Amino acid sequence: MPGGEATAYGYFGPVGTFTHQALLTLDPPAPADPVPYATVGQALQAVRDGEVAAALVPIENSVEGGVTATLDNLAYGDPLVITGEVLLPVQFGLYARPGTSLADVRLVTTHPHAEAQCRRWLADHLPEAEVVVGGSTAAAAAEVAHEGSRFDAAICAAVAGDLYGLEALASGIADNPDAVTRFVLVSRPVPVGQPTGADKTTLVLFMRENHPGALLEILEQFASRGVDLCRIESRPTRRTLGDYCFSIDAEGHVGDARLAEAMMGLYRTCAEVVFLGSYPRADHLAPDVRPGTANDDYAAASSWLERLRG
Amino acid sequence: MPGGEATAYGYFGPVGTFTHQALLTLDPPAPADPVPYATVGQALQAVRDGEVAAALVPIENSVEGGVTATLDNLAYGDPLVITGEVLLPVQFGLYARPGTSLADVRLVTTHPHAEAQCRRWLADHLPEAEVVVGGSTAAAAAEVAHEGSRFDAAICAAVAGDLYGLEALASGIADNPDAVTRFVLVSRPVPVGQPTGADKTTLVLFMRENHPGALLEILEQFASRGVDLCRIESRPTRRTLGDYCFSIDAEGHVGDARLAEAMMGLYRTCAEVVFLGSYPRADHLAPDVRPGTANDDYAAASSWLERLRG
Amino acid sequence: MPGGEATAYGYFGPVGTFTHQALLTLDPPAPADPVPYATVGQALQAVRDGEVAAALVPIENSVEGGVTATLDNLAYGDPLVITGEVLLPVQFGLYARPGTSLADVRLVTTHPHAEAQCRRWLADHLPEAEVVVGGSTAAAAAEVAHEGSRFDAAICAAVAGDLYGLEALASGIADNPDAVTRFVLVSRPVPVGQPTGADKTTLVLFMRENHPGALLEILEQFASRGVDLCRIESRPTRRTLGDYCFSIDAEGHVGDARLAEAMMGLYRTCAEVVFLGSYPRADHLAPDVRPGTANDDYAAASSWLERLRG
Amino acid sequence: MPGGEATAYGYFGPVGTFTHQALLTLDPPAPADPVPYATVGQALQAVRDGEVAAALVPIENSVEGGVTATLDNLAYGDPLVITGEVLLPVQFGLYARPGTSLADVRLVTTHPHAEAQCRRWLADHLPEAEVVVGGSTAAAAAEVAHEGSRFDAAICAAVAGDLYGLEALASGIADNPDAVTRFVLVSRPVPVGQPTGADKTTLVLFMRENHPGALLEILEQFASRGVDLCRIESRPTRRTLGDYCFSIDAEGHVGDARLAEAMMGLYRTCAEVVFLGSYPRADHLAPDVRPGTANDDYAAASSWLERLRG
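ok -> C-alpha cells follow
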C-alpha cells in the first residue's frame, strides 16, 4: 500500500454485477474507483490485505438462500466485520450479441444463483438449451460479448447486458419477480458504530458439543432476553456430517443491553462466538422491544441489585 | 429501646417449642436471654419494632409444608431479611399430668401442625378423644400443666413435657418418624453476608399479569442461568381466587453472577420482587455449578463484550 | 348401609359452617338430610366407607391458600374424585352470648383460617384478647353458646351466629372483604361426566426424581399443548424436606384432546399421576383455545398421520 | 413406458459422478441399467414422470452443506418420498488428457461443490489457473476428454478420470480429506416401510406466521417428545427476504409414537408439513430413547387415559 491507507471499496465484480449495482446505492456513497474482484473470496481477501478499505459482497438471496462462499469466508477466515447492508431487487434478462435470435440459443452461461432463479423460464422457452454456470452474471455477459465465444447468450442484469454491448432477447425472466438480494459491506475489525435504534447484529455460533438440544439452547438465549432473530442458517463445520454451526442475524445492537446479555450467555455456553458486527438495518425497521427489555429496564435492574448487595 | 440497640433474639415460644430447641442449636450461639413470643407474627413484629435483634421462626415442615403465617408475614409485612436457617428433626410425644393414664385421655391439645402429623396414631390409639388445636406445642403443654385444665394431655416435644412437669403417656407418635422442620433467623434489613459457597436465597415474586405462562417464565429465568430451586410455593395474593405469588428458595447467593442475572431478569419482568436474603445453607450442600455459569465465566463474558464494544 | 346405597351428602360441619352454606347453593341441589362431619378427613372417609354418596369440603381460600387437610387427603388417601365445585364469598362477624359487650371479650375461638383472615381487625379492636383456634367456625359458635363456656366470643358466619343463638358484636370483620372460598364435591370414583365447554381437571403429580427442572418439565407438558393452569400448589411428599408433589387444576376436561395429550405426557414422565376428576367450573369460564389445539385440530392431525402411515 | 412400470433407477450423472459411485453401493443393489440425468431436477422429474422407478441424488455434503437443488425440488415440487440413503466419502483428483503436465494447466472445470472443496489446493498449486464450474464432476471429466476441449483439466473422482481416459496430475486434493456426501433414494409416494429401529424421517416445515419464535416452537415440538434432530436447514420460502421454511431430518420413524405425536403437533401448528419419508439410516445408529418415550410407554399412557375416560 505505497502512499497510505487504501480508501477505495472492493466488490464482487466485474462491472455490471448486481453487487456493483448495489454498491452504487450505498449511503453514504462509496469512495471513487471501486475495485472489482472475480470472486467473493478474492474481494474479502483484498480487505484483509489492506488493498481496499472495505468490500461489498452478496450474503443472501430471497430465492436461493445464503451465499455460502460469503458465509463460510466470514465464519472461518481471519476476522472481518460487517458495517452496513444493502437490499437490491434482482431482475434477470437473457442477453445475446446483436443479431442472435431466441431460436439460435443453444448454450447459455450465467451465475449458479441466476440459473436457479430462471429455471422455469428456461424449461418453458429454451427446453433444448444447455446452461453452463460461471463466476458472475456480469462475467457471463462479458464472455458472451467475445466475438468467438461458444456461448450464445447470458442471463444477467440489464445493466450488464448494456455495458457489454448485448441485446435483450427476453427480460423479466426470473421465476419469482420479487426476488431480493442482500449485500453486506465488510471491513477489517473497527470500533462498532453507535446504535441507530434499527440495527442488526451478525454472529456465528459453534457448539461445545453437537448434542440435539444445542440449537434449542441457542435460541433460548435470545428468546429469554426478548431478542428476535431475522436470519438463521446452519452451516457444516467441515468436520463430520451432522456437525453444524449457525450463522445468525439478531435484531439490535451490541450496545443494547438485552442483546449484550444474550451474547454473553452465548459466549459462556458456546465453544466459540464469532462477532461479525452490529450495523444499521437497510429496511430501517425498529425492533419490537418487549416490556422489561429496554436499556432503561436493564439499568434499573442493575441498580436494584447493587442496592441489595449493599 | 432505652439503653441502646436490642441484642437478644426473639423466637416463636413459649419455652419448650421446637423453635426454642432450634434456637439452642444456632451457630454462632444466640445471645443470652432469648424472648419468647406467642405467635410468629408477634415475634416478627418485635424485630421490626427493634425489641429484639432477630427472631427465629418456623418456615417449612417436611410433612405439613409451608408455615403460612411466616411466609405471608415476610412477603407482605415491612421489609425483613433472613440471615440464617436451622433444620431440626421433630419428634412428638403425648404428655399428661402425673397420674393420668392413656385410658383417661378424652381431650387433647396441641399445635395444628402437630395434630396433623400424629393423626394416624390418634386414630389408632385414642379414637374417641377430641383434639383442640392451640398456639404452639409448648403452650399446649403449659395449658395441660394447669391444675384445673380441662385438657387431659398435650402433644409436644419431650423438652416441653419435661419443662412443664408432665409425664409421657407415649413417645415417637408422629406418623412420619423422619419429619424435619426448617426455621429461619430473621432480622431487619442488613448488608448481605459474604457468599460461603453453599448458600440459599429467598425471594417472593409477584407477576405483572396472572397469565397462565407466568410461572413458566419465572422458572425459565432461573433455568436459563443454571440456577436450581430448592423450594417453590404458591401463595394467594389475597386479591382474587387464582391470583398467586410465589415464594422461592434458590440455590446460591446474590453475590453469585448467575443468580444475580436471574434476579435482574425477574426484576425486569415481574411486578415486584421481594428479596428476603442470601444466607448459608444449614445442610452445607454446594450447588451444582453448570459449565459456563461460574463467576469466572461471567467475568470472562463481560470482558469479551467490553472488547467488542470497543 | 342397610337398606341400600347411601344417597345423602356429607359435609365439613357442623351446621352453620361456610361449607354448610356452600352445600345449600349446590346445583342440582344436594339430597335431603346432609350429614355434618367434624373434620375434612372424617367427611372424606365417610365417602370412602359408603356412609354418604358424596361430601363437600373446602379446598382453597383466596386469602389463606390451599386447605392442606383436603389436598393431602385427596392426594394420599384411597381414590376419590371431584365431581363439582362451589365458590362462596366468606364474611365473618364476632358473635357472643346475649348480654356480652365488646369490652367483655377476653377469649375468642374460631377456625384457624378465620383467625388468619381477621388478624388486623382483632389487633385493632381486641388487642388484649386471646384467640384459641378450633375445628370450625360453626363449632366455635356452638362452643360459645354453651352456658359455662370459657370463651367470650366466636368468629363465624352470621348463619352460625344466628343458629346458635348468639348476638353480633361486630360484622364484616375480615381484613379482606372480598375473600372467597372454593369447595369441592367429592365422591368415590365414578365415570367422568361429559365436557361442558367450561371444565376444570384436578391432578396430583409426583416426580420420578426431584431434580430442579422437574417442575419446569411438568409446566411444559401443559404449555406445549396450549393448556392453561388455574391453580398450582406444591405439597411436601412427606419424605424429606425439599421433596414436593404438585396439586394442579388445569383448564379443560379429560375428554379434550389437548388435555388428554398433556396428561398422557405427564403419565409417561412422572412417577405417578393422580387423577382427581374433570368437572364443570363454578365460574362457567370457557378456556382460551389456541389455534391448532381444538379437538377438531387433533382429529385432523390424527387422520393425516394415519394416511402417512398408509 | 411401453411394456409396463419402470424398474430402473435414475441418478445424477453422467457415469462417473459420485452419485453414480453411491448408486453402486446400494443395498439391496439397484436394478440393472441405471439412467443418468444431467441435473438433479431432471432426475427427480423422471421419477415423477414414471420414466424411472426411483432416483439417487445428493442432498448434503459435510463441507459444503445442503444441496439446494435437491432440497428445494423435494420441498416445492410434486410429492416424492425418500426411501433410503447412502453415505460416501468424497475424494478429488486433478485429471487431464494424457500428455498434460501440471504446469500446462490454465483452465480447469468441475462442479461448484468440488471447486469449493479444493479451493486451498488450487490457490497453492495453480494460483494462476481459472476454474469454470459445470454440471457435475463426471461431466467435467467428459468435457476435458474431448480432443478439442478448451479445458486443460477436471477436478473429479478417480472413477471418472479413469472412465474418460484421463490421467491424474494430483490426487487427494480436497482441503478436507474426510468430506462425506449423503445421497437419498427418491421415489413416487409409496407406503412407508417398516421401522428398523435405526431410522430417519425427513420433513419440510412452513410456518403459519414467520414470527421470531416460530423456529423455537418447532424445535420444542420435537424436544418435548424426546425426538432428536440430525439435520436442520433453513431455506427461503421464495416470498420475501427473511421468510424461511425448515428442512429437517428427525431421528426415528413415523411408526414411532413419539415422532408421530411430534409430527401431529407440527401439523396442528404449522401452515404446512411436507412428509418426505421415513427410511433406514445409513449409519445404523439407533436413537437415544429417553425414559417414557418408547412405544410401550405411549401405549401404557393411552390405556390409562382410556380407563380414566371410562
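The CA atoms of residues 88 and 242 of chain A lie 33 Å apart.
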